[in-house]
Amino acid sequence: MGKMLLIKEFLDRMPMVSVITRPGGWGKTEAMETFRMFFEISDKDTSSYFRDNGIGKCEGDYRKYQGQYPIIFLSFQDVKGDSWESVLQKLMWVIQEEYQRHEKSLKSDISNANEVALAATIRNLTEMLANDYGKAPIVMIDDYDVPLISSALIGCYEHAAQFFGRLLSEGLKDNPCLSYGILTGVLPMPKEIVSNGFNHFVSYSVLDDAYQEFFQQAKACDGISPKDFTMVRLIQKLVDDDFRSWLDPLLNGEDTMIWIRPGRQDIYLLMIHAGYLAITKKLLLADGSLLCDVSLQNQEIAAMLQRGE
Question: For residues 294 and 300, is the Cβ–Cβ distance under 8 A?
């Protein structure tokens, strides 16, 4: 049944735009593929996937949404580079490929679009698809935060935040040609994106109860993947002597407590969202903050951070 009931929970909530964040390897891309297979208008009959399991057995009118929407599906997994120009170039390739997938709706070539024009491409494609299908599309963006992390590492984060704030705001905010938007990533939507106009969404992070049963927590592990190296480089910018001392009991196998305050982004929260710390117990306080007991998920990464490598 797995991810099938994820669709039911989404339809029960039905926010205009959802931002679902979980650590890498927790099944976000699989979830997006499930959403896509369920909602997308297709020449192939996909109803058999849903008829006898999961949502097909639920009471209610959930099946009426199946196969009813054009889908704009973008993966930003490889939208990164060693300069802002290379990040933009890769973003343009990703969006151009999706334009070409919808070739009957394609009205223009975006391969030479400047930065201002590129920021309007998602909205433009929603308008084209809504006109052709008579139905506003669903926009799905997997790994939305990869270009932001890449930009932070090459020193152009503020410019990237302004651009992606415009891209997401134009495409997903107050857009009459949008049915829903679904974004996934590791990091919660940065405040810099929100301040640049993208502020109408509902966020579901690893700290929230919503969707928890559909994303499996990775087992504690050692070793460092290529994706980990990128995240570790970002975290290393925040490491200080206090943090290294704080890691000592965790490296000795003990749990420790942290206080997570609303609206604050710090190294401890970044470690949780990256999946390097696991929450073993949490208590919601009256001011909306959380007291959390945490344990270490990856000894090798923590040891690297402590050594300052």
Answer: no
Amino acid, single-letter form, for residue 101? R
Quote the CA–CA distance of 136 and 119 in Å, as a whole number: 19
CA distance 252 to 59: 49
pLDDT for 222 beyond 70: no
Task: Transcribe 220-252 into DSSP letters.
Answer: P-----HHHHHHHHHHHTT--HHHHHHHHHHHT
- Which residues, 6 or more positions from 177, have their beta carbon under 8 angstroms from its beta carbon? 123, 126, 127, 129, 130, 136, 137
Cβ-proximal residues to 293 (8 Å cutoff; 6+ apart), any chain: 255, 256, 257, 279, 280, 281, 282
DSSP state of 182: E
Q: How far apart are CA 274 and CA 217, in angstroms?
A: 11
**pLDDT tens per residue, range 276-295:** 888 889 898 888 888 989 88
Residue 42 C-alpha from the chain's centroid: 25
SS3 of the chain: helix, strand, coil, percent, to 5: 45, 15, 40
293 DSSP β-pair partners: 257, 281
In sequence order, what are the beta bridge partners of 279? Answer: 294
